Amino acid sequence: MRTLDGVPVRLADYRGKIVILNFWASWCTPCREGMADFQALYGACGEASGDLLVLAVDYLPLDAERDVRRFIDGFAAGGTPLTFPILFDTSDGAVAERYGVAPRGVKQAALPVSFFISRAGVLLAKVFGPVTGTLDAQLCAVEAAR
To answer: Which of 31, 52, 78, 123 could disulfide-pair with 24, CB 3.0 to 4.6 Å?
Structure first.
């Protein structure tokens, strides 16, 4: 994957942190709505301590970088910038395929999909659909699995 700035990123780079890996798209209403919750959680639990990381992976096969950037800019204009990393999947969806989100090259995908990963890199939960209102409970389950 790569960041908005084009920097390559691997999930293994974040071993030792709790990671929420969220596959989303800028056109997906539940995805868009969930960004505020992810930002609130990241701001409260991750930004200062560095112990929690939210990685939002845009499903690029069904989105456009310009639309992602427009969404992020609009979110910031609303008063709260997204401070967690926004990443891009490959143009053919290879990362989403690896995580079982969607087969490579499909023209549709059920989004959002969120993965809750322990500090040891163990997948503890995979949630299809919105996690709005359940993030705290999911995070507690990850914490309990230390």
So the answer is: 31
Please list the residues that pair with 86 across neighbouring strands: 56
What dotted CATH number matches 2-144? 3.40.30.10
**Tokens in use for 46?**
């991750």
Q: In whole angstroms, give the CA distance from residue 135 to residue 57.
A: 17
Q: For residues 76 and 48, what is the distance between their CA atoms, to the nearest angstrom?
A: 19
39-98: pLDDT as tens digits = 988 888 766 667 889 999 999 999 999 999 999 998 888 888 899 999 999 999 999 999
Q: No. of H helices and E strands in the chain?
A: 4, 6
Q: Where are the domains of the chain?
A: 2-144
Q: What is the DSSP string of 27-49?
A: T-HHHHHHHHHHHHHHHHHTTTT
